[in-house]
Amino acid sequence: MPRAPIDHSAPPEDDVSGESRAVHPDGEAPPPVADAGADATVNLATSLARHAARQGTRSLSLHQRLTRSLEELTPNERRIARFLLAHQDELALYNAAELSRLTDVSKATVSRLFRRLGYQDFREARDQARSLRQSGVPVAAAPTADHHQRHYEQECRNLRQALAALDMLDMAALSGALAKAERLQIIGFRNAYPLALHLRQQLLQLRAQVAVLPQPGQSLGEEVARLGADDAVVVFAMRRRPQGLARLLEWLGQAPCTVLLVCDDSLSTIPAGIEHVLRCPLDSVSAFDSYAAAMSQINLLATRLLHDDLVGGRSQIRRVTDTFDALEELGDG
Predict the structure, then answer these.
(1) Angle in degrees, 0-180, between the axes of helices 292-308 and 171-180, rounded to the nearest 10
(2) What are the distances in angstroms from CA 140 to CA 95, 123, 205, 268?
(3) How far is CA 256 from the centre of its chain?
(4) How far apart are CA 134 and CA 50, in angstroms?
(5) What are the two backbone dihedrals, phi and then psi, of residue 104, each rounded to the nearest 5 degrees?
(6) CA atoms of 288 and 133, how far apart (whole Å)
(7) What are the helix (H) ranges across the chain?
(8) How far apart are CA 192 and CA 275, in angstroms?
(9) Computed over its alpha carbons, how large is the radius of gyration of the chain?
(10) In angstroms, what CA-CA distances link 240 with 104, 250, 266?
(11) pTM (2 d.p.)
């Protein structure tokens, strides 16, 4: 029996990779060509409405897009959506074929779902998930058998980068400015606050007039307004920074005080006037950023300041130790 002729005019279908072979620049398949002018007008209006909807979802996370669209999805699309809502932290680990296999739906359905959600394709959604982790958002993934080894290797890379960054500082100029400063103010927000506290704890054993700003419940304005040429400020500006920090850095760049900025690579713009910048990697194979390298940098900074004024530093350490004994604050450990 002769085969029916193949209709080459049929609209393209999704290929085996899960991506469409004929896609509009914004990610939607082009609307069919209409024969009548009225139909063409309707199709154009529909296309424009879809484009506007996509533009409105650009800033939404995958979770927000899924929850908004869940009731409008087909049963197979809803199966993928529910899987993603339960495992969205692992999206960065999958490709379209693996997601298809895990949800037992076709790769074409996976592709259609992500276009319906406003993405050009699956890769755009996966890149968004990866960028969240790189910006500091905790993203959990299922632990692997070699997780501890990979964690160790990443920590070693972080330490090497952190020490290389420390070597690039003009330590003589920095330590000289910090040593002669009448007051040393340390600023850190959110995850950087413990770093500020730890640096203060180390430096209080070497010198007086070390403070962390702002004090609980207080604002910065009244504290930094009186900064002068005899003051020094250390600012920890790690990722997921509060919005006002950029304005603060601009202000400090114009102030007469010495400024040391400790930050990760996500802070790309350094205001003019900030003389000393120390980069610190936070990368981790785990859900959370690692601050081990930052703590190591603090150790070396404090040690350098001690060595630069060994006589004065030792005198202050003895004074602090004697006060501990007099107050019986510390145990035998």
Answers:
(1) 70
(2) 17, 19, 39, 26
(3) 31
(4) 30
(5) 60, 45
(6) 9
(7) 37-56, 62-69, 75-87, 96-103, 107-116, 122-134, 147-168, 171-180, 193-203, 221-224, 244-254, 292-308, 310-327
(8) 20
(9) 29
(10) 37, 18, 9
(11) 0.59
Kindly list the strands in the beta sheet with 231-237, ordered across the sheet, starting from the edge strand earlier in the chain.
210-213, 183-188, 231-237, 258-263, 276-279
CA distance 293 to 315: 29
The residue count for the chain = 333
In degrees and rounded to multiples of 5, residue 263 shows phi and psi of -150, 165
Alpha-carbon span 120 to 19, nearest angstrom: 9
Each residue's pLDDT, cut to its tens digit, for the chain (333 residues) gives 555 554 444 444 444 344 444 444 444 445 555 455 555 545 544 444 454 445 445 667 777 888 888 888 898 998 888 888 777 666 766 778 888 888 888 989 988 888 888 888 888 877 776 666 555 555 555 566 777 888 888 889 989 999 999 888 888 888 888 888 889 999 988 888 999 999 999 998 888 889 898 877 778 888 788 888 989 999 998 887 777 888 889 899 889 999 999 998 888 788 888 989 999 888 877 777 888 999 999 999 989 888 887 877 787 778 888 877 788 788 775
CA-wise closest residue to 286 among 143, 158, 146, 153? 143
Query: Can you spell out the DSSP letters for 216-249?
Result: TT--SHHHHTT--TTEEEEEEE-SS--THHHHHH
Give CA–CA dist 150/104, Å, rounded. Answer: 31
CA distances from 275 to 48, 189, 255, 265, 272 (A): 51, 21, 12, 17, 8
Tokens found for residue 266 = 């996500």
Mark 223-249 as b/e (b = at least 16 C-beta within 10 Å): ebeebeeebbbbbbbbbebeeebeebb
